[in-house]
Each structure stands twice: as structure tokens, then as C-alpha cells.
Amino acid sequence: MLLTYEGYEVWTAKDGNEAIARLDREAEDGRSPVLVLTDLKMPSLDGLGLLDAIQERETAPPVILISGHGDVAVAVDAMKRGASNFLEKPLDENRVLVTLRATLRMRKLAAENTGLRRQLTNRWEIIGASAAMQSLREQVQRVAQSDAAVLITGENGTGKEIIARNVHYLGARATGPFVTVNCAAIPHELVESELFGHEKGSFTGAVESRTGHFEAAQGGSLFLDEVGDMPLDAQAKVLRALETHEVTRVGDSKARPVDLRVIAATNTDLPQAVEEKSFRMDLFYRLNVVPFEVPALRDHREDVASLSVQVWSMTGAVDEVKG
Q1: Separation between Cα atoms, residue 265 and residue 288, nearest integer Å
Q2: Can you tell me whether residue 31 is helix, strand or coil?
Q3: Residue 95 φ then ψ, to 5°
Q4: Is the pLDDT assigned to residue 110 strictly greater than 50?
Q5: Where in the chain is the domain with CATH 3.40.50.2300?
Q6: For residue 12, how many other CB atoms are within 10 A of its CB?
């Protein structure tokens, strides 16, 4: 009654066998539940048996087990076998709804992550079987789950953005935005406005308020491409934003919190730029927490063939080559 009242369509079964039969009937009509809520102890096929049967299905819905006080250890074991969560008797209505909604939310996020990973595989795959590219892939996978700043160096055309997108899509922020900023392409007088935003009337031409790239990347990743070309005065403001996790729009005094991961890339020798005082040492160390160096193609020529196939497949020319 509770779930029906909350607007959910509910299928019921008296035991595990009846539940399996219902799932089979609905599957014939192309329907499947978004979640299964089952008691641990039932006649015939119990909750664990039902869990195992559901786990064998190609598209298994999440399962929440209901257990008695003395069955908690069994319920925990069930979670190790694939259950999403468990509820302990006596049931509290609010707890049931909170657990149900959290499980459905995680299912949605998992589906979104699957889609993002498919997108990553199709478009942003790190191509190459050479030792250099295998090492780069392994390094990306190791650091993606952390929230540490990443600095990617390499010549133009080596695929620095591909590495940046892999770090983003393989990490915990994959469902958040990936915002790209080409620091070399922003006019000097507009850098602060582009990065941090501005309020209406804050300068000539500011006819409306605008969100900056830092705010736009909230919950995701900000990719500062060609960061070595950023003006020194803007570097100071970026450093402050990274240290305080706050930004202030041009023409405003209010600090706005930002939660994001910064990934930077450059073809500039930043240590040399630091020595020449054209790049701030403190910002360099703030960005260079996890360094990546992308090799030039001349240093892994054995990957030319696989890279060519990737380019041809993306342009549709691969069919002509095969023919």
C-alpha cells in the first residue's frame, strides 16, 4: 500500500518461485521491474534463491532484501552476492522510501555511467598497443578515481584532450560536465570574465550576467587547455580559486563555492616558464599533482596503423579501405 500510494506500480508474489514466474511473464511483453523488494525468509524459494536467480538474468534489476534482526549477517552476505541493500524488520516507512529512492537513483547513475563509458570507448579511446600507450592507459586508470589535479604535457596533436577526457569519464565525476577552456584563445582583457563570470554592467559590453567556466564545471571537470599561455594576473586568480574552492564574478563581491576537478594541458615547458617568471611556481605545483606526458607519434611509430584505422572509421573511410 505504501509504495502504491507513493505512485509506484507494484507487482506482488507470495514466494520466490511465484516472483520468478511473474518476471518471466512480464519479460514476454518486454517489461521488467526497476527494483525487486523481497523478504529473506519465504517458503519454497527464499530471498537468497530469488537473488541468485535474478542475478543470472541479462538485465538484472537491483534487489533489496528484508531481514529480521537475527538475519543481519545473512543479509550482509547477500549484499556481497549482489544485493543492493537490505532493510531490517520492523520496517519503518520513511526508511523504506529513503532506501528505495537511493537505490533507484544509483541505478540511474549507473546507467548514465554506462552511456558515458560507451561514448568514451567509441570516441575518446586511447589508441595504441605500444608500451608507451599501454603505460599511459594504466596511469589514467590508476588516477581517474582520485580527485587530484592533473597536468598533461605534450606536443600539439599528441592527444592531450583525449587523455583529459579519459581521466574525467573514468572517474567519480563522470556524470558531471566536462568544460574545456582554451587559455590561448581568450583575449587578455576577457580572461577573468570567461573563467569566473561577470555581473551585468560590470564593464562595457556586459549587457547581462554570465556564468564563468569554473561555475559551469560544477560537479565535473574543468580542462584548462594551453594553460601555459594564461596571463600572469589570471594565474593568480586561478590559484586562489583552487586554494579556496571559491570564485568571485567580475563586478560582484560575493564568493561562490565551486566543486570541480582541474585538468590542465600544455605544450609549453612549464618548469622553464617558471624559471623565466612567465608562469607562477605555486600554480605549477598546484596543477602538477599528477603529471602525464603524452609521447609524440614519432616515439611510438608502431601505433600508426591502429591510429589510421581509428581516423578512417570515424570518417567512414574504413569501408572503402576494406573494399
Answers
A1: 10
A2: coil
A3: -65, -40
A4: yes
A5: 2-117
A6: 7
CA separation for the pair 42, 45 (Å, rounded): 6
Region 229-239: mean pLDDT is 94
**Mind listing the pLDDT tens digit for each residue in 161-206?**
989 999 998 888 888 999 999 999 998 888 888 999 888 877 777 7
The string of pLDDT tens digits covering residues 278-294 is 999 999 999 999 999 98
Measure the CA–CA gap between 198 and 215, rounded to whole angstroms.
11
- Amino acid sitting at position 256: R
In the chain, CATH 3.40.50.300 sits at 132-318
Pair type for strands 221-225 and 261-266: parallel
Q: Mention the CATH class of domain 132-318.
A: alpha beta
Q: Which amino acid is at 321?
A: V
The amino acid at residue 233 is D
**What is the Cα–Cα distance from 48 to 83, expressed in whole angstroms?**
9
Fold annotation for 2-117: Rossmann fold (3.40.50)
Contacts of 48 (CB under 8 A, 6+ apart): 40, 74, 78, 81
The four Cα atoms 225, 231, 237, 238 give a dihedral, to 10 degrees, of 20
